[in-house]
Amino acid sequence: MKDAFGSPRSLLVLGGTSEIGLATARRLITRGVRTVWLAGRPSAGLESAAGALRALHADMDVRTVAFDALETDAHEEALGKVFAEGDIDLVLLAFGVLGDQARDEAAPLAAVRVAQTNYTGAVSAALVCAAALQAQGRGSLVVLTAAAGERARRTDFIHGSSKAGLDAFTQGLGDAMYGTGVHVMIVRPGFVRSRMTAGRTAGPAEALLTTTPGAVATAVELGLRRRSETVWVPGATRVVMSALRHLPRALFRALPL
What we know:
Layout: E1 10-14, H1 19-29, E2 35-40, H2 44-54, E3 61-66, H3 75-84, E4 90-93, H4 101-106, H5 108-136, E5 139-144, H6 157-177, E6 182-189, E7 191-192, H7 204-208, E8 210-211, H8 213-226, E9 230-233, H9 237-245, H10 249-254
Parallel strand pairs: 1-2, 1-4, 2-3, 4-5, 5-6, 6-9, 7-8
Helix pairs in contact: 1-8, 3-5, 5-6
């Protein structure tokens, strides 16, 4: 297996039906990945995704593993099976839920599910994978957070706060892994047009920061080659969010966000 920073040969996608995860897998397969694990809840969709990746190259080894972000007690066992089969060059944590802000405000248990999936489940899975990568002495862990986590908005503060927590956690994990041979990279996409956001109208700021799963996949590959610690997609997102983050609260509250 090659250095994960250059041309990874093996990939574990946490969130095996994620459009961003699958777009990244397809892109990396063209660059030399030959073993892919798709971790997700058992479903026809997961098997279909695996079959589609197998068809991309005659030498592809694509496997699935049962994984549920909410079943944190089972993460070590489920993911341990993957690493027991051989070293993994790259782990991509790509699962998450958007939720429905209006509904979730009125149904606290629904809001808790968003938080548990996006933060608690991700923290658990990331720690399990980071420990396994550290035991190998090498590898990359890429975590998808969101530009929305940079500052809570009235229309998206439940989802945004869960991604903000995950982002802060991943920054700390990257510092903890520094010098161990494990590279941790945060990817902060803007508004991604995908199944998750279908039917949702982007706000004025989001419209400026719209991206696609394919564009995120391209940014992930470039970030790995550069050994980046943080990647914004699109790149302009960094400037826009920096400006929004520093606006006085009264002014921020008045913006149509």
